[in-house]
Design brief:
Length: 447
């Protein structure tokens, strides 16, 4: 149960859910069989959302079901099949378009995005694209206008039924061959599907080369804008500034100003010099007040001999002196220079850990003023602590005066006691000596 759609950009194969959506599949298959979709425009392409077709008028307001051909205008639309519910989950889901009254005709859409839940319950899913996803991607990326209509026609050229499980209803007229398209069908007012888009066709070689050079210059300008060398890709150099080169190194800005001032008043005349040595690099820029004076100098002064050198004069291509206001026109080049200077200045912020180091300190930002305040507060706290210590020492001294007196008395008592003990020991020793002496004498006597 599949249908092949041959489009102007490639082929799509659609598998049909004939069991879940029998009426929608019958309508689609029989419309393909009678070649109803041949040369239908894809008239609605919304990127990463849907592509819509199936209306022979190409407006999105036409189309009719196969039942209209069988039973008349009262059967132009048929009722939508809502059970079972099939969701728009993946790319390539094919659904019949709702006409606003839960009815369908011939228009159908193919999703080019995923998880399009807001289409569920509105448009009836009856199939999916199984082959030709690259073709679907090509259609999805085509260029469209504000109404999502492709600038170049994309059409269904032919439909081929690969498998049809339904019998033809009675009264169905099947053509023997595919009909030829009419002029009205092919005339959409846009670029034809088979028409080649070539802007250079019929142009002379010089014009083609000029267009290519302009495109290349534009791409270079965009690149310079991206790297920051140009303030804007569309910027143009001033037309009142001349570029003078091949100068003699001895020629000064005053000399050039005197020579070129005969064409009109000069705003500035600057000889470019080497930033290290200060020597001339042999070219200069001359800015006139009027563009007419600049043009006169350009035509008159080229190849003129100045200080034994023939100079070359051209219009300046430099935009160095153009005021840079950026894309939004808010900032100038000077603003960015001021910002860079401010960035180079020492920061007003310091780490709180550096102010008062702690093991478990948190890294908070504090101002220099806070640092000074912290220093003063620390010194004040240190003074208070010293005063407290001194006060405590005085109180301790007062408290310890009384116990000191009692200690002195105790020491005197101990000394007297120790003196008495020493006397007692001395007397006991003398007694022992006398006893030993008398004992030895008696012993000698009895011998």
């Amino acid at each position: 149960m599949a249908v092949l759609l041959e489009t102007t950009v490639g082929d799509l194969v659609i598998d049909l859910y004939t069991e879940e959506r029998p009426r929608a599949c019958l309508n689609f298959l029989k419309l393909c069989k009678v070649k109803y979709y041949n040369f239908c425009l894809i008239y609605n392409v919304q990127q990463d959302f849907i592509i819509q077709t199936g209306d022979p008028t190409g407006t999105g307001r036409g189309g009719e079901s196969i039942f209209c051909q069988l039973y008349g205008d009262q059967a132009r639309f048929f009722e939508a099949e809502k059970v079972p519910r099939i969701r728009h989950k993946k790319k390539g889901t094919v659904s019949m378009v709702n006409n606003g009254n839960d009815q369908h005709g011939s228009q159908f859409l193919i999703t080019t995005g995923e998880n399009l839940d807001y289409l569920d319950g509105v448009h009836t899913v009856f199939g999916e694209v199984t082959e030709g996803m690259d073709v679907l991607k090509t259609i999805n990326e085509t260029f469209v206008d504000k109404d999502f209509i492709p600038y170049q026609d994309i059409r269904i050229n032919h439909t081929v039924i690969l498998e049809d499980p339904f019998d033809d209803p009675p009264g169905l007229c099947v053509p023997d061959r595919s009909p030829e398209p009419t002029k009205e069908q092919l005339d959409s007012g846009r670029i034809g599907a088979d028409e080649e888009i070539d802007d250079m066709k019929g142009r002379p070689a010089d014009e083609i080369e000029e267009v290519r050079a302009e495109k290349e210059a534009k791409s270079h300008a965009i690149l310079l804008e991206m790297v920051g060398d140009l303030p804007d890709a569309d910027i143009k150099p001033p037309e009142n500034v001349l570029f003078v080169c091949k100068l003699n190194p001895v020629t000064t800005g005053e000399d050039l100003e005197i020579i070129f001032s005969r064409f009109g008043p000069i705003k500035s005349c600057e000889v470019i010099r080497d930033w290290k040595t200060g020597e001339s690099v042999c070219y200069a820029f001359i800015e006139f007040e009027k563009e007419e004076d600049c043009e006169k100098a350009y035509f008159k002064m080229d190849n003129v001999l100045i200080d034994d050198r023939r100079i070359h004069v051209d219009f300046s291509q430099s935009v160095a002196k153009v005021k840079w206001k950026g894309k939004a026109g808010q900032y100038t080049k000077e603003d960015f220079k001021d910002y860079e200077k401010e960035c180079k200045k020492p920061s007003k912020f310091a780490l709180k850990e550096k102010v008062k180091p702690k093991r478990d300190a948190k890294y908070d930002l504090v101002l220099d003023e806070d640092i000074e305040e912290s220093h003063t507060s620390q010194s004040h706290l240190a003074k208070k602590q010293k005063q407290k210590k001194h006060h405590h020492c005085e109180e301790d001294n007062k408290r310890t005066k009384k116990p000191k007196e009692s200690d002195q008395k105790h020491e005197e008592h101990c000394r007297e006691k120790s003196k008495g003990e020493n006397r007692h020991r001395h007397s006991s020793r003398t007694r022992y000596k006398e006893r030993d002496y008398t004992y030895s004498r008696q012993k000698d006597k009895y011998r």
